[in-house]
Amino acid sequence: MSVEDGGVPGLGHPRQARWTLMLLVSTAMYGAHAPLLALCHVDGRVPFRPSSAVLLTELTKLLLCAFSLLVGWQAWPQGTPPWRQAAPFALSALLYGASNNLVIYLQRYMDPSTYQVLSNLKIGSTALFYCLCLRHRLSARQGLALLLLMAAGACYAAGGLQDPGNTLPGPPSAAAAGPMPLHISPLGLLLLILYCLISGLSSVYTELLMKRQRLPLALQNLFLYTFGVLLNLGLHAGGGPGPGLLEGFSGWAALVVLSQALNGLLMSAVMKHGSSITRLFVVSCSLVVNAVLSAALLQLQLTAAFFLATLLIGLAVRLYYGSR
């Protein structure tokens, strides 16, 4: 049974072992992102522009893809370069850009805890587009697994970590800033639904492109990240006055950019050879890594909600990928 169809690759063959290792590394990188970002803080805030980090991440991915093609790690297709096949990736870049920017605007219309809980609806939207666009039918067992995954994400976001010096519910960063009532405006709810739909569509659309085109993955990534760099360069330039591109960057910030770039490349391999659903499980499993690293590096405490979320994730993995 294949990974895409719901099977778990065994470790008996080298390719299956490499696939499993890639998923584990990607899970670790996803989980390490937030703790590494917290280590970048100076006087309680990120000292560089977020748009700078996004732009540098996209540029790093682009350069790594170009390098892999130049040194021959992946073969350049024979004949005329398939530049016409690059155009569809512009929509992927736009969808990803819209999704990333909506996350920022959503914070104006709801508190962080509400956002963290409700944003797990993108698991459902991804599954919906996965079934509609790729014409894959999920069994009742797999549907239940995704519901458990959504519940695990909501449970963790509602209080999986806690600052030892603060007993307020919700994410530690929100608690440290003082009590904030749970709230969401009607416009915020509409934007959240739009964000979840765009997030699911961007993932499934990119998977569809990568699987339909008979091109090397590095070349497809080259197309995607070229548009990504151009889009984010425009957003950075139009973002108004602020710190320079590299201003405020430290070794931790460089590590954040590098890890995000490498993880983006790993995720593209998951989309081409696995599925958007596999990506959902990687992101959800990364919550466990995030919590453990946050407890170790930031002295935060694991709560009962974390252990419940971990249990739900384990059950979801067993239901979706276990033998039937």
From TrEMBL:
Positions of transmembrane segments: 20-42, 54-76, 88-106, 144-162, 182-205, 217-237, 249-268, 280-298, 304-321
Record InterPro entries: EmrE-like, Nuc_sug_transpt
UniProt GO molecular function: pyrimidine nucleotide-sugar transmembrane transporter activity
GO cellular component: Golgi membrane
Pfam families given in the database record: Nuc_sug_transp
Keyword Isomerase: no
UniProt entry tagged with the keyword Transmembrane: yes
Family per record: Belongs to the nucleotide-sugar transporter family. SLC35A subfamily.
UniProt name for this protein: UDP-sugar transporter protein SLC35A4
